[in-house]
């Protein structure tokens, strides 16, 4: 029995894999295995011999079985480790999709705008697309009877029957984010707020959902001069032309005083748009000095603080910069359009690396 023990315990420890282990199991404790055959011999023994040999054989069988189980577990562990090693995968590697998707021009232009303003110290603020009447209008100095309310082609959310409070609206501009940002941060503040806005309008240059970016800078002595510099700097970087020329035209917005609409010099010669040359002017944004009432609504003391705001259409900037003729196609999800006008996912716009290479 000692020979058997030595033979099998040693062989089990040395078994290279599961099939070899199974072979050993059959040889030792299988139906016709050596230990099993010896157990059968017990019947032929005298009671005394059986008394002595029985427990010993059982112990041997147990010992071999536990050695088999332990080795089996060890082999399984080793196999798993080997698999983990062989199938190791670097999940931080970039994907290799079979068909490369593209970045939508609106996302691309939003990233470009964000990169330019981030470089000038602006951070990004956000607000909800379903906005209260107060944030969308009142806080921006557009009281209920103000004519500007009609001009906004507002989508209204419905209230429950019998609820007389003013309905929420789909925000008609990104300007309410000015109020939210002021309330959250206080002064001084420098933010842009890109996002979706909604108006009930549809033709070649209007869609019911479109994108705007709001800008807000409040400080002790921020002036129109700062506004002019920031916007010129932005246009130079965004359109990637040194000689941009802007024209500030007196205008009116309820939330700014004074207000200015800004045009950019351009040429349509030969049917294609060139920014920075020619004799035409193209309106690109609205802006002004933030109205004291708007500062107050944002929780900021107008006797202590002042600043500028501006708002422009992201989709329109995308159309101008990338020569895209019809706004409606932006939101048609036509794959041919997306492949043609989309941008590579790996070219993240930065000021150093280039905005739109
Ligand atoms: N909210 C205006 C609109 O949607 C755009 C605008 C004009 C925003 C002037 C401003 C501003 O912040 O100062 O038409």
Account of the 3D structure:
The protein is α+β, with helices and mostly antiparallel strands and 357 residues long. It has two domains: 2-86; 105-340, 2-Layer Sandwich (BirA Bifunctional Protein, domain 2). Helices cover 40% and strands 19% of the residues. It has twelve helices and ten strands. It has helices spanning 2-14, 18-29, 34-41, 47-86, 105-119, 133-136, 148-151, 176-185, 224-239, 292-297, 314-322, 335-341; strands at residues 123-124, 130-131, 169-170, 189-198, 209-219, 246-253, 256-267, 274-275, 280-290, 306-313. The strands form two sheets. Strands 1, 4, 5, 6, 7, 8, 9 and 10 form an eight-stranded mixed β-sheet that branches. The longest helix is centred in the N-terminal third of the chain and has 40 residues, at 47-86. The chain is elongated. The N and C termini lie far apart (81 Å). Its EC number is 6.1.1.20. Residues 116-349 form the Aminoacyl-transfer RNA synthetases class-II family profile domain. Tetramer of two alpha and two beta subunits. One of its GO terms (biological process) is phenylalanyl-tRNA aminoacylation. It holds the Pfam family tRNA-synt_2d.
Topology summary:
Blueprint: H1 2-14, H2 18-29, H3 34-41, H4 47-86, H5 105-119, E1 123-124, E2 130-131, H6 133-136, H7 148-151, E3 169-170, H8 176-185, E4 189-198, E5 209-219, H9 224-239, E6 246-253, E7 256-267, E8 274-275, E9 280-290, H10 292-297, E10 306-313, H11 314-322, H12 335-341
Parallel strand pairs: 1-4
Antiparallel strand pairs: 2-3, 4-5, 5-10, 6-7, 7-8, 7-9, 9-10
Helix pairs in contact: 1-4, 2-4, 3-4, 5-11
Family: Belongs to the class-II aminoacyl-tRNA synthetase family. Phe-tRNA synthetase alpha subunit type 1 subfamily.
Domain Aminoacyl-transfer RNA synthetases class-II family profile: 116-349
Pfam family, one: tRNA-synt_2d
């Amino acid at each position: 029995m000692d020979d058997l023990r030595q033979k099998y315990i040693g062989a089990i420890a040395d078994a290279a894999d599961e099939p070899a282990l199974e072979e050993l199991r059959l040889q030792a404790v299988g139906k016709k295995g050596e230990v099993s055959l010896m157990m059968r011999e017990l019947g032929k023994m005298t009671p005394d011999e059986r008394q002595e040999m029985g427990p010993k054989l059982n112990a041997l069988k147990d010992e071999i079985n536990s050695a088999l189980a332990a080795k089996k577990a060890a082999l399984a562990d080793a196999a798993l480790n080997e698999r983990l090693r062989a199938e190791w995968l670097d999940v931080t590697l970039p994907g290799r999709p079979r068909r490369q998707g593209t970045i939508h021009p609106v996302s691309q232009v939003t990233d470009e705008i964000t990169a330019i303003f981030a470089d000038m110290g602006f951070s990004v603020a956000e607000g909800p697309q379903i906005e209260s009447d107060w944030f969308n209008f009142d806080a921006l100095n557009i009281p209920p009877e103000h004519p500007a309310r009609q001009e906004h082609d507002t989508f209204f959310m419905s209230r429950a029957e019998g609820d007389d409070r003013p309905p929420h609206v789909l925000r008609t501009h990104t300007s309410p984010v000015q109020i939210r940002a002021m309330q959250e941060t206080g002064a001084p503040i420098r933010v842009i707020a890109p996002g979706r806005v909604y108006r009930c309008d549809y033709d070649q240059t209007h869609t019911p959902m479109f994108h705007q970016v709001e800008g807000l800078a409040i400080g002790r002595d921020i002036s129109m001069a700062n506004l002019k510099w920031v916007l010129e700097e932005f246009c130079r970087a965004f359109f990637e032309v040194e000689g941009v020329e802007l024209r500030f035209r007196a205008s009116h917005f309820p939330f700014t005083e004074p207000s200015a609409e800004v045009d950019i010099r351009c040429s349509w010669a030969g049917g294609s748009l060139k920014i920075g040359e020619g004799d035409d002017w193209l309106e690109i944004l609205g802006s002004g000095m933030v109205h004291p009432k708007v500062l107050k609504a944002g929780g900021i003391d107008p006797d202590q603080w002042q600043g500028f705001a501006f708002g422009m259409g992201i989709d329109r900037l995308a159309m101008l910069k990338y020569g895209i003729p019809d706004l409606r196609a932006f939101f048609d999800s036509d794959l041919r359009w997306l492949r043609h006008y989309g941008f590579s996912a790996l070219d993240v716009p930065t000021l150093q690396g280039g905005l739109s290479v």
